[in-house]
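Collaborator request, handled under Task 6.
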Amino acid sequence: MLKRVNRETIDNLNNEQLMVLYANNKNNAQRAFAVLYERHKGPLYRFVLKSINNEAQTDELFQDLWFRIIQHKDSFNPKQKFTTWAYTIARRLLIDFYRKQGKRFEQAFDEAMPEHNEEPTGSYALPEQVLQQKRHARALQQAVTELPPEQREVFLLFHEGDLSLQQIADITDQPKERIKSRYRYAVKKLKNTLQVLL
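Structure tokens returned to the collaborator:
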């Protein structure tokens, strides 16, 4: 019974508390890590995938990302948000990845093209609705790839990472006002592009 209470308590901790528990190697440290991984694996994976649009390389980088989180757990500052810390590591990993290929991050980010689509479809949707949803998803994906690299990065961090503009400013080491402008321009450009495509 005690194990179950501890497990439920751990499941209800916030990200920062989980990371501190994991970093301190306390009892239930592995459970704390497992909860963090479950909460963030999807958004972090999608951020890396949509940044490079290569599934095989994404899988490798995603493993490296979690290895770095484990390796640098002692450097986590509980006063900062876990998501800011994790996405900073992810972004640096992507920069290193592109540097090894002889490309600047912005150049490589700009060259990334989608290989697949992730369209949610209702289980009881009519064929016309499914087709329209797929068309809209493809149009949005295409519009996102056509954004300038800095705007695309901010847009993906905001929507895939579910990060605030302040967190994105911290991750990219840019002023918050610049991040707000990039996001505003990205949304405006997406609206204009989607009106033409749809």
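The cover message to the collaborator said: "The two ends are 56 Å apart (CA to CA). The chain is about 75% helix and 0% strand. Please let us know whether this matches your experimental observations."
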